Amino acid sequence: MPAATEEIQGAQEEAVALRFLTAPVRILSENGKVSGLECIRTALGDADASGRGRPVALEGSEFVIPCDAVIVAVGQRTDQSWADQVPELQWTRQGTIEVDPNTLQTSLPHVFAGGDAVSGPASVIEAVAAGHKAVAAIDGYLRQADLGVQAAPTPAQKLSGENWRPLPAGLPAEVRASSRRLDPKARVASWAEVDCGLTEAEALHEAQRCLNCGICSECMECVRACEAQAIDHYMGAQELEVKVGSIIVATGYDLLDPTPMKPYGYGLYPNVYTSLEFERLSNATGPTGGQILIRNEEGRHTREPQSVAILHCVGSRDVNYHEYCSRVCCMYALKYAHLIKEKVGPETRVYDFYIDQRCYGKGYEEFYRRCQEEGTHFIRGRVAAITDQAATADEAGKLIAIAEDTLLGQRLRVPVDMVILCVAMEARKDAVEVARIFGISQGADGFFLEEHPKLGPLSTATDGVFLAGACQSPKGIPHTVAQASGAAAKALSLATRGTVAVPSAIAWIDPDVCAGCRTCIGLCPYTAVEFDERRGVSVVNAALCKGCGSCAGFCPSGAAQVRHFQKKQIMAEFDGIMDAGQAVGM
Amino acid sequence: MEDFEPTLIAFVCNWCTYTAADLAGTSRLTYPQNVRLIRVMCTGMVDPQYVIKAFLEGVDGVLVSGCHPGDCHYINGNFKARRRIKLLKEILPRFGFQEERLRLTWIGASDGIQFAETIRAMVAQIKTLGPSQARLKMVI
After folding, report:
1. How many Cβ contacts (< 8 angstroms) between chains A and B?
2. Which of A64, A500, B29, B53 has a Cα-to-Cα distance from A12 of 20 to 30 A?
């Protein structure tokens, strides 16, 4: 019986009697009404050409099933009434149209067929797939392409067994969730849906059975779906050598990891977030669809917070971490306070623990005022610790921010549901390496050093390398955009001019004196010294040299000298000093 | 010895210590007038010969001062200076000069006060060391 197992099971549960090897003979009637069905038992005969035994009626085994109604399950076959008009079309023995399985081309080359007429009774989706296949083949046929190649099925790929992440040993087996079904007694008496599906909790649990082992299985469906053709599975890492006249370094920043700051309990309590984590939480594309929810012990988002503490200057303005101010925190903390009031409700209590509110920009102070009017509690004082040890009944189940209000001179314990740490922006971990590659220097705080804080905020010590954004110092989006536009203009001004003016105080190596020891080549921080193999001397590239004199300070033969700071000149200056000193009796 | 006024030569880098000295001046800070500054672009260009020449000429102390580590205008010139000064300090005693007469410091452009302080401290120290022997013994 070619029915699905679950259908057969369902029928048996509902006490439907299945009679196999039984053939109907005739319907019995009494007074114009059905009274029974006469059947005959059969047995499987010898197998025919298709390997299937044909049922053979057993003589004398007739019996009657008494019943009031008979439902005839009529079979389906292809409508062949029109076949006579197309005598060239070939049909299979099952009464379907004969086609090439790859191209769906019939015995008439210009006729293609698909759907139930080819496959026999099947589903709509299979008919649609056949239609797609046939269209592709017709396209090839009209272009007179080789249909055999065109429609060859994709060969089954053998899995190498390397395309997924290894599973950790000792994973417990979890049973697949099955959907609940209506009780058989109830369902025979109603038309209600039998399969109740999974409940939300069951569906979530079922989804969590996923071991997430799959990296891409390379089914290539995304390639077909992407209309912009933006996906390329064969793209690999490649090194490009690009010749450029200037470079803008905009490598950004890292967020300070607050895990080592034990008193704040980050990583210990599920509801202590960093600023970027909260940003993600409140984002409409985030895990909660933009709802601000607190998490339970398992990390599941449960309900909206009734109170939130926002801690400024976590790792900023702190001699133990970073002495500098991260500059953007005050304003985004105000934004968070505003967002919480707006999304969760104005009755939500938001506590903003600050050292100083630095609202320095256009419209910023006004926004601060607005947040004050919205009822955010601003407390001047740093939080000493976050704890879950409740001292009173009010604090039970909450996180308690222990702080001092330095304006009131009072110690505080503020119970809250959620804590947001405004962590410091810091130089990226690979900044040292990047600085070395581009020949730029780093300040004591690790951020890239601009040429001059006032007169050269975009350029660096290396000509043609410019800075933009938070790699130079902590800054927000408007300042980054402004600086980046400036850096782009600087780069353009070099490109349009086409020539470069070199400073006068740069190094020069006297080729008559140079012994070709090449020590200066290793010393030069700008790789400005090259070796001239033909003459056997080192040569300074004037366009790269900045005149630091690293070469001049070491050169054993004295061939390398910085113009205007030559050894002769320094010695003369020194002699002058000594003579003048003697003249006044020093 | 009471009225011994030492002569100091300071090789200062253009970007940090020279600017700091400038700041000390514009801030009207006072410091001993025993020091003479020689401006160089970077402490990395101070040839050890300059220091030795100064001592041989009878200078009582030499200060080399540049940018703080990591702040060098030329990426790492101050580190090169640090290595050279370390070597110089090794060899100076063999010529009869106490190594304390040579000093390397980092004074940033905004450290005018520290510049004045450093000069004051160094002059005081050289005063306790007394005049350089070169001035007394050597015939040049």
Report:
1. 90
2. A64
Of the two residues A217 and A24, the one the predictor is more confident about is A24
Q: Would you say residue A26 lies in a domain?
A: yes
Q: What is the CATH number of the domain that holds A567?
A: 3.30.70.20
CA–CA distance, A523 with A334 (Å, rounded to integer): 50
| Interchain pair B5, A439: CB under 8 A | no
Distance CA B121, CA B124 (A): 5
| Nearest beta carbon to residue A571 from set B53, B58, B77 | B53
Token pair listed for A287: 């895990």
CA distance A549 to A561: 7
Q: How many residues does chain B have?
A: 140
Q: What is the pLDDT of residues A93-150, one digit of tens each?
A: 888 999 988 889 999 989 999 999 998 888 899 999 999 989 988 988 898 877 766 5
Q: What residue of A is the nearest CA neighbor of B135? A: A586
Enumerate residues 6+ apart whose C-beta is below 8 A from A245.
A464, A491, A494, A495
Using CA atoms, how far apart are residues A260 and A267, in angstroms rounded to an integer? Answer: 10
- Domain ranges, ordered by start, for chain B: 8-137
Which chain A residues are within 8 Å of B14, Cβ to Cβ?
A: none
- In chain B, which residue's Cα lies nearest the Cα of A580? B36
Q: Which among A490, A460, A454, A485 is positioned nearest to A472, based on CA atoms?
A: A460
Contact B57 A586 (CB under 8 A): no
> Which of A442, A505, A553 shows the shortest C-beta gap to B70?
A442
Please judge whether A548 and B77 are an interchain contact, meaning their C-beta atoms are less than 8 angstroms apart. Answer: yes
Phi-psi group of A213: left, alpha or beta (phi > 0 → left; psi -120 to 50 → alpha; rest → beta): alpha
Q: Which three-class secondary structure state does DSSP give residue A345?
A: coil
Report pLDDT digits (tens) over B41-79. Answer: 999 999 999 999 999 988 999 999 999 987 888 888 999
* Whether residues A326 and A407 fall in one domain: yes
Candidate CATH numbers 3.40.50, 3.30.70, 3.10.450, 1.10.3470; the one for domain B8-137:
3.40.50
ipTM of the complex: 0.94
Residue A280 has a pLDDT of 95
Confidence of residue A157 (pLDDT cuts 50, 70, 90): low
Half-sphere exposure of A313 (CA within 13 A, CB side): 19
**Is the pLDDT assigned to residue A244 strictly greater than 70?**
yes
User: In this complex, do A548 and B41 lie within 8 Å of one another by their Cβ atoms?
Assistant: yes
- Return the bridge partners of A181, or none: A195
Which of B45, B54, B72 lies at the smallest CB-CB distance from A574? B54
Domains contained in chain A, number: 6
Residue A293, CB half-sphere, CA atoms under 13 Å: how many?
14
Q: Which residues are CB-contacts of A234 (< 8 A; sequence separation ≥ 6)?
A: none
Q: Which residues contact A117 (CB under 8 A, 6 or more apart)?
A: A78, A96, A97
- CA gap A271, A252 in Å, rounded: 27
B83 neighbourhood in chain A, CB within 8 Å: none
Query: Could you tell me which of A454, A475, A551, A553 has the C-alpha nearest to residue A508?
Result: A551
Contact B119, B102 (CB under 8 A): no
Claim to verify: residue A12 and residue A113 sit in the same structural domain = no
Any CB–CB contact under 8 A between B87 and chain A?
A: no
Same domain membership, residue A421 and residue A434: no
**Distance from first CA to last CA of chain A, Å, rounded?**
119
What is the percent of chain A where pLDDT is above 70? 96
Query: Do A350 and A421 belong together in one domain?
Result: yes
